[in-house]
Write a structure and sequence with these properties.
about 120 residues; alpha+beta; two-stranded antiparallel sheet; globular; binds zinc ion
Length: about 120
């Protein structure tokens, strides 16, 4: 269901970002405090049905970490990282890509997404 979110996100420096994917991630953002991003792409928490958000951490000049946390029971994904800066012209995509990785990690559910969609496996 969310396979579209994964293949277009660059995994290596040489990869070209898929701007359609970047746009969908950005358009899904309902609120962004800088450290907490709400996205309407996020599925409800599989444990309690709560509403999740993306927790974003600027780890260094070049590295952004993001994970999804349930606002009710605090279940979370592991941190996903975007550790090189990605630009599309003047538009920096680094943070959006970290958020996108976290969203697709959270939305990956048993029986819903096949192995082909997993990061690093393509
Ligand atoms: Zn929960």
């Amino acid at each position: 269901m969310f396979d579209w979110l994964m293949p277009g996100i660059p995994r290596t420096v040489a990869d070209e970002p898929d701007m359609g994917t970047v746009r969908r991630i950005r358009e899904s953002v309902m609120s962004d405090t800088g450290q907490a991003v709400e996205s309407d792409l996020l599925l409800p928490c599989p444990f309690c049905g709560g509403v999740p958000y993306v927790q974003v951490n600027d780890l260094s000049e070049t590295c952004v970490g993001a994970r999804v946390v349930c606002g009710s029971c605090h279940a979370s994904t592991v941190h996903e990282y975007q550790c090189w800066r990605v630009w599309h012209g003047d538009d920096e995509l680094t943070r959006t890509l970290a958020v996108g990785r976290a969203i697709s990690s959270w939305n990956r559910r048993e029986g819903r997404n096949d192995e082909r969609g997993r990061y690093g496996d393509r």
